[in-house]
Specification:
By secondary structure, the protein is of the alpha/beta class. The protein has a single domain, classed as Hypothetical Protein Aq_1857, Chain: A (Sandwich). Helices cover 17% and strands 41% of the residues. The chain has helices at 6-19, 70-73, and strands at residues 3-4, 25-33, 39-46, 54-58, 61-65, 77-83, 86-92. The strands form two sheets. It has a four-stranded mixed beta sheet with strand order 3-2-5-4. The longest helix has 14 residues, at 6-19. The protein is globular and about 35 Å long.
């Protein structure tokens, strides 16, 4: 199951509201991994999802993950940060391997 922090939920709902559609889901996916095992993640708004995909609900949001990404996202949390260093979404995954190897990928 993927969880969403309160701050991330507020920002995602704002973005979805801007789309003006009721059937928008947040797609979360794994785009690959580094040689050390650290995963790379992506997110986007999507209206083209199927029943075969994994659909999670939380904080009033619909989250979608394809069958390849879903097992890697188990236990992950989507968060949103807004600080002097920048703002944006992050995905914290306690199951991710590698812990960041610093290879630059």
């Amino acid at each position: 199951m993927i969880t969403v922090s309160e701050q991330a939920a507020v920002e995602l709902k704002r973005l979805i509201e801007e789309q003006g559609q009721n059937d928008v889901a947040v797609r979360v996916f794994v785009t690959g991994s580094c040689h050390c095992g650290a995963a790379h993640y992506g997110m986007g708004l999507d209206t083209d999802y199927t029943e075969e995909e994994h659909v999670f609900a939380g904080e009033g949001l619909r989250l979608v993950a394809d069958s390849d990404s879903a097992p890697h996202l188990e236990g992950a949390e989507i968060d949103y940060r807004d600080s002097l260093m920048g703002r944006g979404f992050t995905i914290k995954n306690p199951n991710a391997g590698g812990g960041g190897c610093g290879c630059g990928h």
